[in-house]
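C-alpha coordinates help. One example:
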Amino acid sequence: MTSDSPLPGPSIVDALAALGDQSDDAIDLAEAALLLALAKRPEMALAPYIRHLDQLVAAVSDYAGRDDTLDRRHEALVQIIARQFGYTGTTRAFDTLDGADLMRVIDRRSGLPVTLGILYIDVARKLGWAACGINFPGRFLVRLEAHGERRIIDPFERGAAVDPVGLRRRLKDIAGDDAELKPGYFDALSARDVLLRLQANIRVRLVAKQNWRDAIDVVERMLLVAPDRPDLWREQGVLQARLDEVPAAIASLEESLRHGGPDPDRYETTALIQELRQRLS
Protein backbone atom coordinates (compact mmCIF):
# COMPACT_ATOMS: atom_id res chain seq x y z
CA MET A 1 0.00 0.00 0.00
CA THR A 2 2.22 2.78 -1.25
CA SER A 3 0.23 4.63 -3.90
CA ASP A 4 -1.09 8.14 -3.25
CA SER A 5 -4.27 7.13 -5.07
CA PRO A 6 -6.99 5.36 -3.08
CA LEU A 7 -7.64 1.75 -3.88
CA PRO A 8 -10.82 1.01 -5.84
CA GLY A 9 -13.55 -0.82 -3.95
CA PRO A 10 -12.98 -4.34 -5.32
CA SER A 11 -9.26 -4.07 -4.51
CA ILE A 12 -10.07 -3.32 -0.88
CA VAL A 13 -12.13 -6.49 -0.67
CA ASP A 14 -9.33 -8.46 -2.34
CA ALA A 15 -6.74 -6.99 0.03
CA LEU A 16 -8.84 -7.86 3.08
CA ALA A 17 -9.39 -11.38 1.73
CA ALA A 18 -5.62 -11.68 1.30
CA LEU A 19 -5.26 -10.93 5.01
CA GLY A 20 -7.57 -13.85 5.68
CA ASP A 21 -5.14 -16.13 3.85
CA GLN A 22 -2.08 -14.85 5.71
CA SER A 23 -0.61 -16.33 8.86
CA ASP A 24 -0.98 -14.18 11.98
CA ASP A 25 2.76 -13.50 12.04
CA ALA A 26 2.67 -12.17 8.48
CA ILE A 27 -0.04 -9.56 9.09
CA ASP A 28 1.11 -5.94 9.21
CA LEU A 29 -1.19 -4.82 12.02
CA ALA A 30 -1.33 -1.07 11.40
CA GLU A 31 -1.62 -1.35 7.64
CA ALA A 32 -4.40 -3.90 8.04
CA ALA A 33 -6.21 -1.52 10.40
CA LEU A 34 -5.82 1.26 7.83
CA LEU A 35 -7.24 -1.04 5.18
CA LEU A 36 -10.30 -1.71 7.33
CA ALA A 37 -10.75 2.05 7.74
CA LEU A 38 -10.35 2.51 4.00
CA ALA A 39 -13.17 0.05 3.37
CA LYS A 40 -15.54 2.59 4.92
CA ARG A 41 -13.99 5.58 3.14
CA PRO A 42 -12.52 4.29 -0.13
CA GLU A 43 -11.97 7.80 -1.46
CA MET A 44 -9.10 8.35 1.00
CA ALA A 45 -5.43 7.95 0.11
CA LEU A 46 -3.39 5.66 2.32
CA ALA A 47 0.09 6.97 1.55
CA PRO A 48 0.06 9.90 4.04
CA TYR A 49 -0.93 7.51 6.84
CA ILE A 50 1.73 4.97 5.87
CA ARG A 51 4.32 7.77 5.90
CA HIS A 52 3.15 8.80 9.36
CA LEU A 53 3.56 5.25 10.65
CA ASP A 54 7.08 5.19 9.20
CA GLN A 55 7.76 8.52 10.92
CA LEU A 56 6.72 7.09 14.27
CA VAL A 57 8.99 4.09 13.82
CA ALA A 58 11.98 6.25 12.86
CA ALA A 59 11.45 8.67 15.75
CA VAL A 60 11.12 5.90 18.35
CA SER A 61 14.21 4.20 16.95
CA ASP A 62 16.24 7.42 17.17
CA TYR A 63 15.09 8.04 20.75
CA ALA A 64 15.85 4.51 21.94
CA GLY A 65 19.26 4.41 20.30
CA ARG A 66 21.29 1.35 21.17
CA ASP A 67 19.80 0.98 24.64
CA ASP A 68 17.66 -2.14 24.34
CA THR A 69 16.47 -2.34 27.94
CA LEU A 70 12.77 -2.61 28.67
CA ASP A 71 12.83 0.74 30.47
CA ARG A 72 14.33 2.50 27.44
CA ARG A 73 11.97 0.87 24.96
CA HIS A 74 8.96 1.84 27.04
CA GLU A 75 10.28 5.37 27.51
CA ALA A 76 10.90 5.77 23.77
CA LEU A 77 7.39 4.66 22.86
CA VAL A 78 5.80 7.01 25.39
CA GLN A 79 8.01 10.00 24.60
CA ILE A 80 7.34 9.78 20.86
CA ILE A 81 3.80 8.43 20.51
CA ALA A 82 2.17 10.06 23.54
CA ARG A 83 4.25 13.16 24.21
CA GLN A 84 5.78 14.25 20.92
CA PHE A 85 2.84 13.28 18.68
CA GLY A 86 0.15 13.70 21.34
CA TYR A 87 -1.69 10.37 21.10
CA THR A 88 -3.95 9.92 24.11
CA GLY A 89 -7.33 8.54 25.08
CA THR A 90 -10.35 10.72 25.70
CA THR A 91 -13.85 9.74 26.77
CA ARG A 92 -15.18 11.30 23.55
CA ALA A 93 -13.59 8.43 21.65
CA PHE A 94 -16.26 6.08 23.03
CA ASP A 95 -19.12 8.21 21.71
CA THR A 96 -18.56 7.75 17.97
CA LEU A 97 -17.39 5.11 15.51
CA ASP A 98 -14.36 7.24 14.61
CA GLY A 99 -12.44 6.01 17.65
CA ALA A 100 -12.05 2.62 15.92
CA ASP A 101 -10.98 4.16 12.59
CA LEU A 102 -7.18 4.33 12.48
CA MET A 103 -7.18 7.06 9.83
CA ARG A 104 -9.41 9.25 12.00
CA VAL A 105 -7.28 8.46 15.04
CA ILE A 106 -4.10 9.53 13.25
CA ASP A 107 -5.82 12.73 12.13
CA ARG A 108 -7.09 13.55 15.63
CA ARG A 109 -4.42 11.88 17.80
CA SER A 110 -7.12 10.24 19.91
CA GLY A 111 -9.11 7.03 19.77
CA LEU A 112 -10.22 3.87 21.51
CA PRO A 113 -7.70 1.87 23.57
CA VAL A 114 -7.38 -0.83 20.89
CA THR A 115 -6.74 1.67 18.09
CA LEU A 116 -4.08 3.47 20.09
CA GLY A 117 -2.67 0.10 21.11
CA ILE A 118 -2.22 -0.85 17.47
CA LEU A 119 0.18 2.08 17.08
CA TYR A 120 2.32 0.97 20.03
CA ILE A 121 2.39 -2.65 18.88
CA ASP A 122 3.10 -1.73 15.27
CA VAL A 123 6.00 0.57 16.09
CA ALA A 124 7.53 -1.90 18.54
CA ARG A 125 7.29 -4.85 16.18
CA LYS A 126 8.77 -2.94 13.27
CA LEU A 127 11.77 -2.25 15.49
CA GLY A 128 12.06 -5.95 16.27
CA TRP A 129 10.76 -5.55 19.82
CA ALA A 130 8.41 -8.06 21.43
CA ALA A 131 4.98 -6.49 21.89
CA CYS A 132 1.41 -7.76 21.79
CA GLY A 133 -2.09 -7.03 22.96
CA ILE A 134 -3.36 -9.16 25.83
CA ASN A 135 -6.73 -10.79 26.41
CA PHE A 136 -7.71 -8.41 29.21
CA PRO A 137 -11.47 -7.80 29.37
CA GLY A 138 -12.87 -4.39 28.54
CA ARG A 139 -9.70 -2.29 28.36
CA PHE A 140 -7.19 -3.08 25.62
CA LEU A 141 -3.69 -3.30 27.11
CA VAL A 142 -0.28 -3.92 25.55
CA ARG A 143 2.56 -6.10 26.84
CA LEU A 144 6.19 -5.19 26.14
CA GLU A 145 9.04 -7.64 26.67
CA ALA A 146 12.81 -7.41 26.72
CA HIS A 147 15.48 -9.74 28.11
CA GLY A 148 13.02 -11.79 30.14
CA GLU A 149 11.23 -8.77 31.61
CA ARG A 150 7.60 -7.91 30.90
CA ARG A 151 5.59 -4.74 31.34
CA ILE A 152 1.93 -4.04 30.72
CA ILE A 153 1.09 -0.56 29.46
CA ASP A 154 -2.15 1.29 28.82
CA PRO A 155 -2.13 3.11 25.45
CA PHE A 156 -5.32 4.95 26.40
CA GLU A 157 -3.47 6.54 29.33
CA ARG A 158 -0.50 7.78 27.31
CA GLY A 159 1.36 4.49 27.54
CA ALA A 160 1.49 4.41 31.34
CA ALA A 161 2.76 1.22 32.98
CA VAL A 162 0.05 -0.73 34.82
CA ASP A 163 0.88 -2.61 38.01
CA PRO A 164 -1.28 -5.37 39.58
CA VAL A 165 -3.22 -2.82 41.62
CA GLY A 166 -4.02 -0.88 38.45
CA LEU A 167 -5.05 -4.05 36.66
CA ARG A 168 -7.45 -5.00 39.45
CA ARG A 169 -8.92 -1.50 39.45
CA ARG A 170 -9.56 -1.62 35.71
CA LEU A 171 -11.11 -5.07 35.96
CA LYS A 172 -13.43 -4.15 38.82
CA ASP A 173 -14.48 -0.95 37.05
CA ILE A 174 -15.67 -3.11 34.16
CA ALA A 175 -16.79 -6.38 35.76
CA GLY A 176 -17.77 -5.39 39.28
CA ASP A 177 -16.19 -5.55 42.73
CA ASP A 178 -16.27 -9.37 42.86
CA ALA A 179 -14.15 -9.75 39.72
CA GLU A 180 -10.63 -11.10 40.14
CA LEU A 181 -7.69 -11.37 37.79
CA LYS A 182 -7.34 -14.67 35.92
CA PRO A 183 -4.29 -16.07 34.12
CA GLY A 184 -6.14 -16.09 30.79
CA TYR A 185 -6.48 -12.31 30.91
CA PHE A 186 -2.75 -12.07 30.19
CA ASP A 187 -2.68 -14.37 27.16
CA ALA A 188 -1.24 -12.80 24.02
CA LEU A 189 -3.63 -11.77 21.26
CA SER A 190 -2.68 -12.49 17.67
CA ALA A 191 -2.69 -9.69 15.11
CA ARG A 192 -5.91 -11.16 13.70
CA ASP A 193 -7.53 -11.14 17.15
CA VAL A 194 -6.57 -7.48 17.60
CA LEU A 195 -8.15 -6.57 14.26
CA LEU A 196 -11.34 -8.44 15.20
CA ARG A 197 -11.43 -6.67 18.56
CA LEU A 198 -11.07 -3.36 16.72
CA GLN A 199 -14.00 -4.13 14.42
CA ALA A 200 -16.08 -5.56 17.25
CA ASN A 201 -16.11 -2.09 18.81
CA ILE A 202 -17.85 -0.81 15.69
CA ARG A 203 -20.23 -3.77 15.43
CA VAL A 204 -21.37 -3.50 19.06
CA ARG A 205 -22.19 0.19 18.65
CA LEU A 206 -24.13 -0.41 15.43
CA VAL A 207 -26.09 -3.28 16.94
CA ALA A 208 -26.95 -1.12 19.95
CA LYS A 209 -28.48 1.37 17.51
CA GLN A 210 -30.25 -1.48 15.66
CA ASN A 211 -28.37 -0.49 12.51
CA TRP A 212 -28.44 -4.05 11.20
CA ARG A 213 -27.29 -3.34 7.65
CA ASP A 214 -24.11 -1.51 8.65
CA ALA A 215 -23.47 -4.12 11.34
CA ILE A 216 -23.62 -6.84 8.66
CA ASP A 217 -21.11 -4.89 6.58
CA VAL A 218 -18.73 -4.85 9.55
CA VAL A 219 -19.12 -8.59 10.14
CA GLU A 220 -18.50 -9.22 6.44
CA ARG A 221 -15.18 -7.38 6.74
CA MET A 222 -14.34 -9.37 9.85
CA LEU A 223 -15.02 -12.57 7.95
CA LEU A 224 -12.68 -11.50 5.17
CA VAL A 225 -9.93 -11.20 7.78
CA ALA A 226 -10.94 -14.36 9.70
CA PRO A 227 -13.01 -16.58 7.36
CA ASP A 228 -12.94 -19.65 9.60
CA ARG A 229 -14.50 -18.16 12.76
CA PRO A 230 -17.84 -19.89 13.43
CA ASP A 231 -18.97 -17.15 15.83
CA LEU A 232 -18.69 -14.54 13.09
CA TRP A 233 -20.67 -16.63 10.61
CA ARG A 234 -23.34 -17.11 13.27
CA GLU A 235 -23.40 -13.39 14.03
CA GLN A 236 -23.83 -12.63 10.34
CA GLY A 237 -26.69 -15.13 10.10
CA VAL A 238 -28.48 -13.66 13.11
CA LEU A 239 -28.18 -10.13 11.70
CA GLN A 240 -29.39 -11.25 8.27
CA ALA A 241 -32.39 -12.92 9.92
CA ARG A 242 -33.26 -9.62 11.58
CA LEU A 243 -33.54 -8.10 8.10
CA ASP A 244 -35.63 -11.05 6.86
CA GLU A 245 -32.84 -12.09 4.51
CA VAL A 246 -33.76 -15.68 5.28
CA PRO A 247 -31.88 -17.65 2.58
CA ALA A 248 -28.70 -15.66 3.25
CA ALA A 249 -29.14 -16.14 7.00
CA ILE A 250 -29.52 -19.91 6.59
CA ALA A 251 -26.40 -20.06 4.43
CA SER A 252 -24.39 -18.10 7.01
CA LEU A 253 -25.60 -20.26 9.89
CA GLU A 254 -24.81 -23.45 7.97
CA GLU A 255 -21.33 -22.06 7.34
CA SER A 256 -21.02 -21.50 11.09
CA LEU A 257 -21.79 -25.17 11.70
CA ARG A 258 -19.28 -26.19 9.05
CA HIS A 259 -16.52 -24.36 10.90
CA GLY A 260 -17.31 -25.97 14.26
CA GLY A 261 -17.69 -24.12 17.54
CA PRO A 262 -18.90 -25.05 21.07
CA ASP A 263 -21.71 -27.60 21.32
CA PRO A 264 -24.26 -25.21 22.94
CA ASP A 265 -23.75 -22.75 20.09
CA ARG A 266 -24.17 -25.53 17.53
CA TYR A 267 -27.45 -26.61 19.12
CA GLU A 268 -28.81 -23.06 19.11
CA THR A 269 -27.61 -22.50 15.55
CA THR A 270 -29.30 -25.68 14.35
CA ALA A 271 -32.54 -24.66 16.05
CA LEU A 272 -32.39 -21.24 14.43
CA ILE A 273 -31.83 -22.78 10.98
CA GLN A 274 -34.93 -24.95 11.45
CA GLU A 275 -36.94 -21.91 12.51
CA LEU A 276 -35.82 -19.97 9.45
CA ARG A 277 -36.60 -22.84 7.11
CA GLN A 278 -40.12 -22.88 8.49
CA ARG A 279 -40.44 -19.23 7.46
CA LEU A 280 -39.70 -20.25 3.88
CA SER A 281 -42.26 -23.08 3.80
About this structure: The two ends are 48 Å apart (CA to CA). Strands lie at 130-134, 142-146, 149-154, 160-161, 188-189. The chain has two domains: 9-189, 228-280. The first helix runs from residue 9 to 21.
